[in-house]
């Protein structure tokens, strides 16, 4: 699998679309255990990213540079909890893509593994804290395993998304220990974490993009 | 829920435009970043810079407290969302007079991460930054994990103490010490009767029955620690006070500053009825109310309900509480 | 609608108890009548007494405005009901320094009758009393019957002008002239989004659809002149401003004081968005905003919505607007 | 018909009862065109009157004195629009009852006519302004007519109450010109005036008292 900068940008736009579609749902989840703005925040951030992709980054071919600008754009559009978390993820990701105008399986593996780990470095959440890390951590683990076993990226990323989905669902039965919802204690039980959910949407939208391109290539 | 707004995505920027127009004798917007609001008056040379901030929707916090005797600058976030590092950094650069800057904000994951990133960037520019996080909300974590607590209305006392200390000419270390002391001596607990809603969703932040209240809620509409039947004001006040006093025991002869803070839509009438009970209970215990603040100091858009804050005073803190302030939304002579 | 109160019949008295406790450095309750609240500081000898008042439920109006540079005393009525003559008379006697007293209140049937009765009684005690009724509400009667108009948020400007004039040492006649001038130059129009409810009934004062607003409502929840679809803030501001400007034409170069007043539960965020539009429109017309007030100045319990007030200024009125004030709920340096 | 001070006081208490029963309804009417407190205000005022009747006025036999105290009590309990109006009514009424410990038909006629007119003197309302005067004015007229024709008071008061009821109902089709509701203009149409309604309840409760006593006497 080989992804050009344009396709990479398109994949990011597809993520933005997915977030836009799920905006209400994400805010709904955040209303239950947080301050109700998660969908709004993610939408503001990803809209700003799309805006940048369509303007300043329109001609940009360096995927590392793209990620760096995406990180800063997202961060400065939203602040919030997710701003630093995703900004750090994209900054870490940008490092492994520096100078690359097309991405092979190896690049994609490294990108997602570094990005995912960036979330943990910034947010210091543990698995079980009921955060986006509960989605991202198992996804990263799956990626690392597939990478070690020499599986192609699409196969590996399918497994990552499946693991992320499990992780996301598992937040429902957790007592929150990080972020706003941690004040709730036991009352956070039974509600899926909004950040874990949007993290899953990001992963699954990227997978969807890959599947669609794959399909086209097969035709 | 209904709102007098235009485009929901522009509420913060339009609000800032109005705010700066209305109070140009107090504040100005930095050309580098329109989400960076700083004081528009000459302050004393070498004064430590006081930066407070956080998400929007809490007015008078935070921009309403820019002024003499209080904050020098405020980076402004989206509704209920920490500002990103950029506007924080710009404010920091604008207010630093070579003696360093103190960051004061509520202890929320988002604010901590963004302000920390800004502090790192500021240090790259050779500005010394120290941070004191407000943790007054007794409902947000047990006393054994006191450093995990969130900042709510009591932040006002911490900002005021630090602002006064800086205005008096104290060094950054001293301002930090006093801000920490103010925070350590401050406890708040709140109750909500009706929800707020953020402009983009207009959905109520929570649903409460016609006869229910939510004890210990967060100042962003986060659910509280307990939901119960709405009780008479005196019982509610007792409940809040008892929790505070169990957490920060006070003795006969102690002096406190009291803040009864409206969350947005609670009539002043009700706040004064709450204050009445607070003053009764404290009088019974022989605790002196040194200064009282009743009104809207840290709000949550149109949320209904209030919080009670006590700050235990010693000589030093009393002096800081008394220090005058002149801000767009708070003036003390 | 939910309330943080105890016995609904005691809300006013309990509120006063809390208020006087919280602000004893500013105010005291007269032993003769607990509904009579007066200033607790020495004012200059021979100063004309300034008495403002009306029903409860409008805080900061009226008791929040007792202080230096503003009112000397306030008789307090039940919720949305004029005080009876007794507390008015007691306040009058307490604040008179031999130079007479001015009564300032909104032009409502109840207030007119009760204050007039008190004025008669005061004259029997050889206290000279003059009255200026606030009639700023353009929605309450056509320009041809301007003397029938009611007093709403613009009363703040009238009270402030009279309070400043008296503090400056003007005679009663002069204070009356200036108060009248302030009133003649002041126009307000309001809009409501959500109702309030009085504590005894807890029933909403009116029912509005999820997408409706009420233009020109009264400050006690009286229905307005027109009900319509809720519009964006800019359109609402234009609508209110246009009505005001049609009633009190302003020319390029004119100076005004602006008050954007929240009715109780409207977030400051929205008030500043409204102010932004006001400042835009006035700038387009070349009208200078000399001073701005944005916040809650005259409320209607928890009503949602706001009003816009313009006071056209000449040299004299500008000076009165600038005059400092130090009150429990309003301080101007 | 001869009414002793005690009965007079009982009649006032019966009025207070009636107002208490109709409190919600009166506030409801005031919500439609005013500030929604009319029932509350009347209830506060009349409760204060009953309190006074049961304490300071317990032994008082002078009906003039009773009326004077009732006037002041009502006024100082409520302020408002109705305070001065009813206080003036009772003060005017007190003058004609000065020194009387029992009231004959002549006294009762004079009391109600003076009291009724006091309302107009204080409030300066005209018939058709949509106020309590629309109830009271026709009632006073009926009383004057019956008095001139030498009818006994009960007969006259029955007619007064009937006329007052007509007057009250007529406020429904009026555009308000006095009080809070006058700001409404045309929008006040279709709503019966709260003050006109409570004025009718006062008259009819007094009549009810008379009828009840009459009944007892006939037995
Ligand atoms: N320290 C953290 N590490 C990882 N994720 C976190 C952390 N703190 C919060 N989150 C995530 O952020 C989400 C909330 O995001 P959002 O609602 O946009 O921000 P805010 O809490 O500032 O309103 C939570 O659901 C959680 O998944
Ligand atoms: N000038 C007046 N003359 C006679 N009745 C009046 C006058 N002004 C008001 N009213 C009566 O008062 C009633 C309202 O009383 P209430 O609601 O108790 O007082 P407020 O208007 O102060 O809230 C009106 O329905 C009307 O009948
Ligand atoms: Mg959130
Ligand atoms: Mg948030
Ligand atoms: Mg009233
Ligand atoms: Mg009324």
TrEMBL record, chains A, D:
InterPro entries, per the entry: DhaK_L_YcgS, DhaL_dom, DhaL_dom_sf, Dihydroxyacetone_Kinase
A biological-process GO annotation: glycerol catabolic process
Keywords, alphabetical: Glycerol metabolism, Kinase, Transferase
Single GO molecular function: phosphoenolpyruvate-glycerone phosphotransferase activity
EC number: 2.7.1.121
Catalytic reactions of this protein: dihydroxyacetone + phosphoenolpyruvate = dihydroxyacetone phosphate + pyruvate
Ranges for region Disordered: 168-191
Annotated coiled-coil segments of the chain: none
Pathway(s) of this molecule: Polyol metabolism; glycerol degradation
Enzyme class, first EC level, given as a word: transferase
Residue ranges constituting the DhaL domain according to the UniProt record: 6-208
GO-annotated cellular components: cytosol
Function: ADP-binding subunit of the dihydroxyacetone kinase, which is responsible for the phosphoenolpyruvate (PEP)-dependent phosphorylation of dihydroxyacetone. DhaL-ADP is converted to DhaL-ATP via a phosphoryl group transfer from DhaM and transmits it to dihydroxyacetone binds to DhaK.
Subunit structure, as described in the record: Homodimer. The dihydroxyacetone kinase complex is composed of a homodimer of DhaM, a homodimer of DhaK and the subunit DhaL.
Protein's name according to its UniProt entry: phosphoenolpyruvate--glycerone phosphotransferase
Organism: Parageobacillus thermantarcticus
UniProtKB/TrEMBL annotation, chains B, C:
UniProt key word Nucleotide-binding: yes
GO molecular function: ATP binding; glycerone kinase activity
Any one biological process term the GO annotation gives: glycerol catabolic process
The EC number(s) this enzyme carries: 2.7.1.29
Coiled-coil parts of chain: none
GO cellular component: cytosol
Residue ranges of domain DhaK in the record: 7-330
Keywords (A to Z) from UniProt: ATP-binding, Kinase, Nucleotide-binding, Transferase
A Pfam family reported for this protein in Swiss-Prot or TrEMBL: Dak1
Protein name (Swiss-Prot/TrEMBL): Glycerone kinase
């Amino acid at each position: 699998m080989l992804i050009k900068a344009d396709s990479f940008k398109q994949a990011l736009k597809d993520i933005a679309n997915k977030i836009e579609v799920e905006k209400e749902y994400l805010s709904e989840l955040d209303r239950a255990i947080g301050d109700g703005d998660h969908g709004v925040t993610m939408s503001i951030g990803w809209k700003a990213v799309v805006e940048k992709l369509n303007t300043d980054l329109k001609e940009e071919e360096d995927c590392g540079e793209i990620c760096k600008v995406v990180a800063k754009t997202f961060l400065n559009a939203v602040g919030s909890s997710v701003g630093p978390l995703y900004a750090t993820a994209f900054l870490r990701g940008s490092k492994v893509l520096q100078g690359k105008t097309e991405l092979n399986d190896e690049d994609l593996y490294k990108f997602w593994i570094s990005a995912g780990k960036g979330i943990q470095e910034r947010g210091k959440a543990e698995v079980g804290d009921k955060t986006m890390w509960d989605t991202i951590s198992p996804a990263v683990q799956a990626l690392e395993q597939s990478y070690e076993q020499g599986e192609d990226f699409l196969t590996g990323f399918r497994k990552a998304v499946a693991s992320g989905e499990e992780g996301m669902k598992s937040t429902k039965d957790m007592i929150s220990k990080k972020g706003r919802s941690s004040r709730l204690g036991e009352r956070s039980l039974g509600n899926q974490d909004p950040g874990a959910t949007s993290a899953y949407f990001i992963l699954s939208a990227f997978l969807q993009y890959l599947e669609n391109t794959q399909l086209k290539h097969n035709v | 829920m209904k709102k007098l707004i235009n485009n929901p995505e522009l509420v913060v920027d339009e609000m800032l435009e109005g705010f700066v127009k209305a109070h140009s004798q107090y504040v100005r917007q930095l050309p580098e970043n329109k989400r960076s609001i700083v004081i528009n008056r000459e302050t004393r040379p070498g004064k430590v810079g006081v930066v407070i901030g956080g998400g929007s929707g809490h007015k008078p916090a935070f921009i309403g407290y820019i002024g003499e005797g209080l904050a020098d600058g405020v980076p402004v976030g989206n509704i209920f969302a920490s500002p990103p590092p950029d506007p924080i950094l710009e404010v920091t650069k604008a207010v630093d007079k070579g003696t360093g800057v103190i960051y004061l904000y509520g202890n929320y994951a988002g604010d901590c991460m963004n302000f920390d990133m800004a502090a790192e960037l500021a240090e790259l520019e050779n500005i010394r930054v120290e941070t004191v996080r407000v943790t007054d909300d007794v409902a947000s974590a047990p006393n054994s994990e006191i450093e995990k607590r969130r900042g709510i209305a009591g932040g006002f006392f911490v900002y005021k103490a630090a602002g006064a200390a800086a205005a008096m000419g104290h060094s950054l270390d001293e301002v930090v010490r006093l801000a920490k002391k103010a925070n350590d001596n401050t406890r708040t607990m709140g109750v909500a009767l009706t929800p707020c809603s953020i402009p983009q969703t207009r959905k109520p932040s929570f649903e409460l029955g016609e006869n229910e209240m939510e004890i210990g809620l967060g100042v962003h509409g986060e659910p509280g620690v307990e939901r119960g039947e709405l009780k008479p004001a005196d019982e509610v006040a007792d409940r809040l006070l008892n929790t505070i006093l169990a957490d920060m025991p006070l003795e006969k002869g102690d002096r406190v500053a009291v803040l009864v803070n409206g969350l947005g839509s609670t009539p002043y009438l009700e706040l004064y009825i709450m204050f009445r009970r607070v003053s009764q209970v404290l009088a019974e215990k022989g605790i002196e109310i040194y200064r009282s603040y009743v009104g809207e100091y840290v709000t949550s858009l149109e949320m209904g309900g209030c919080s009670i804050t006590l700050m235990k005073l010693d000589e030093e803190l009393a002096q800081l509480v008394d220090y005058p302030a002149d801000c767009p939304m708070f003036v003390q002579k």
